[in-house]
What we know:
By secondary structure, the chain is α+β, with helices and mostly antiparallel strands. The chain folds into 2 domains: about 1-245, Beta Polymerase, domain 2; about 245-305, no CATH class. Helices cover about 60% and strands about 15% of the residues. The chain has 7 helices and 7 strands, in the order E-E-E-H-H-E-E-E-E-H-H-H-H-H. It has helices at about 30-40, 45-50, 105-120, 125-160, 165-200, 205-270, 285-305, and strands at about 1-5, 10-15, 20-25, 60, 65-75, 85-95, 95-100. A 7-stranded mixed β-sheet has the order 2-1-3-7-6-5-4, sandwiched between helices. Helix 4 runs antiparallel to helix 5, helix 4 (about 125-160) packs parallel to helix 6 (about 205-270) and helix 6 runs antiparallel to helix 7. The longest helix has about 70 residues, at about 205-270.
Amino acid sequence: MRTYWNIEKKLGVIKEWQPNCWIQVTCPTDEDKDFLEKEFQIPDYFLSDISDTDERARYEYDDGWMLIILRIPYVKEIRSRTPYTTVPLGIIHKRDVTITVCYYETNMMIDFVSFQQKRGEGFTDYVDLIFRLFLSSAVWYLKRLKQINMLIEKAKHNLDHNVNNESLIGLSRLQDSLTYFITSIRGNETLLQKLKFKLQVDELDADLIEDVNIEMTQARETTNIYSDILESTMDTYSSIINNNMNTTMRTLTSVTIILMFSTLVASLFGMNLVNGMEESPWGFLIAIVISVVVSGITWWILKFKRLL
């Protein structure tokens, strides 16, 4: 889907392309790809690179075209193995043509457009647009991190009451999401530092870059904190599970020992040997009493040694 935006004064939709407008392409179809390649002569591998979900944050030039790939946060289905991940957002520019391409419909881009319209101001130039996309991505990383933190606290609350596999698996998936986040944020920071010297940055852009640096630093540090907390939490519950397993095994071993002595007594009296109680009417009762006494003594010893 293609949307043409007039970025002067106020962000607004226009019917067709005009010089210095912003072309937003979301979930591009084959028709969109053909249009971009034939109408603007964009290198075809630009679009294929953007479609690669594992493409790192970077920039490159080819035949006057500049490609910038920014990693932005994306939420999959909540039951997905990694509900929070990152996807590439491609920014393509040449002279009076500025295009953004994303193969996923993200809340970040929807909010970005909505915020700029409420702001009532357009973009001074394509450089302003690029760095505002950087700023929006950093803000949305922080929003998603707050959601991840809420899920971590919920899982910890459930585990405090009952250590179950579902909550532990949920924490493991969130750990994967944080790994994706920290890798993408670091890549975006490196890309930002390079673009400061590659793009025509004026004084207003410099102030905007400073804001982006602050937000990205906060996002990176917050991700590291949550990752450390989650790793510590996983280690703690792993120790709890091991401790519970050791306690259970110790209890079962103690019960086995108690039953072993009573079984030994029954086995001795049950052997086909002369023991003096073959004809006694009290033989069975005596064997039971001896078994109970021996088991009781064994239980007391284990309890005294704190083995039970």
